[in-house]
């Protein structure tokens, strides 16, 4: 049981125990990782019946889809460096009746991931609440590890953020301030160190298509967004990967790419259930959204595999 818990609690002390900085801070060769978002156990039923607040009492479809995702990842060769889930792990909000069962069923699926592929978790609004509190964040951390942290892989610096603190921190302003101070320190590290790339993971996108688009449920408020984008750009961050939208989207702000990935679970647009393959080379970050069916049956396409094989 302790070993199972460790798989889900590798993010501790604001870092990820799966990777040692001393081993990973130097560039070695191209690599790749898998990004997923929004398995959100319970939303498909809730969305189908038009009751997203109370309707998530079944999640068999999401179990099957997440099992398919895990099986597809496990058969990839070479193995990805890690599998990051960008939030909304489950649909049940803090304090709701289905939450505990949804969490356990998700863990029962994810524990089958290859032991050599670390899991990286990002908190979403359904994981800590639309208006998070110290209690909801603490509960999340007990189940999934720290809500924000950094780690190194292959000379690339990764930052995981709690984007809900940028959406509404009215009930946890001290925690928002703590993340801000931590982030400033991490961005200072990013500016000073000679990392090949700096990449951010967060649940809520900065923007969906245009950096100046209006604020709504699926992006961050404009002033917050622009402050973060400028901070990120100044620190040399190349890409931000997120979920939340349940559709593929994205755009650019100067040299910063915003990548919005659709869901493993419920689709709200025309995309298929899928995962994003992200290739990191010395010069660039290349990514492709793949349907679960295609990734399961065909693996990663040759064009992307050739990038990984470059020295």
UniProtKB/TrEMBL annotation:
Coiled coil: none
Major enzyme class: hydrolase
Membrane-spanning residues: none
Entry protein name: Serine/threonine-protein phosphatase CPPED1
Reaction(s) this enzyme catalyzes, per UniProt: O-phospho-L-threonyl-[protein] + H2O = L-threonyl-[protein] + phosphate; O-phospho-L-seryl-[protein] + H2O = L-seryl-[protein] + phosphate
Calcineurin-like phosphoesterase domain sequence ranges: 44-247
Family matches, as Pfam families: Metallophos
Gene: CPPED1
Catalytic activity, EC: 3.1.3.16
Any one annotated GO CC term: cytoplasm
Stored InterPro entries: Calcineurin-like_PHP, Metallo-depent_PP-like, MPP_CSTP1, STPP_CPPED1
Metal-binding found in the keyword field: yes
Example GO molecular function: protein serine/threonine phosphatase activity
Alphabetical UniProt keywords: Cytoplasm, Hydrolase, Metal-binding
Family of the protein in this entry: Belongs to the metallophosphoesterase superfamily. CPPED1 family.
Cellular compartments annotated: Cytoplasm
CDD domains registered for this protein in UniProt: MPP_CSTP1 (cd07395)
Cofactor: a divalent metal cation
């Amino acid at each position: 049981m302790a070993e199972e818990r460790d798989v889900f609690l590798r993010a501790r002390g604001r870092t990820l125990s799966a990777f040692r900085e001393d081993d990973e801070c130097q560039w070695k060769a191209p690599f790749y990782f898998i990004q997923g978002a929004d398995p959100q156990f319970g939303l498909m039923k809730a969305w189908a019946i038009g009751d997203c607040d109370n309707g998530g009492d079944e999640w068999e479809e999401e179990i099957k889809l997440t099992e398919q995702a895990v099986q597809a990842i496990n058969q990839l060769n070479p193995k990805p460096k890690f599998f990051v889930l960008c939030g909304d792990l489950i649909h049940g909000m803090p304090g709701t009746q289905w939450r505990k069962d949804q969490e356990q069923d998700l863990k029962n699926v994810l524990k089958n991931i290859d032991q050599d592929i670390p899991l990286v978790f990002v908190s979403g609004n359904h994981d800590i609440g639309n208006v998070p509190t110290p209690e909801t964040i603490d509960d999340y951390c007990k189940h999934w590890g720290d809500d924000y942290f950094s780690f190194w892989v292959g000379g690339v610096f990764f930052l995981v953020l709690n984007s809900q603190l940028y959406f509404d921190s009215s009930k946890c302003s001290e925690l928002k301030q703590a993340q801000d101070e931590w982030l400033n320190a991490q961005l200072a590290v990013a500016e000073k160190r000679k990392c090949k790339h700096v990449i951010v993971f967060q649940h809520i996108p900065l923007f969906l298509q245009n950096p100046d688009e209006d604020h709504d449920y699926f992006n961050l408020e404009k002033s917050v967004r622009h402050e973060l984008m400028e901070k990120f750009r100044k620190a040399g961050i190349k890409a931000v990967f997120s979920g939340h939208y349940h559709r593929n989207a994205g755009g650019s702000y100067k040299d910063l790419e915003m990548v919005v990935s659709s869901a493993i679970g419920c689709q709200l647009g025309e995309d298929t259930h899928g995962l994003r393959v992200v290739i990191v080379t010395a010069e660039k970050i290349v990514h492709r959204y793949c349907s679960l069916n295609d990734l399961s049956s065909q693996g990663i396409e040759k064009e992307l595999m050739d990038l990984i094989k470059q020295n």
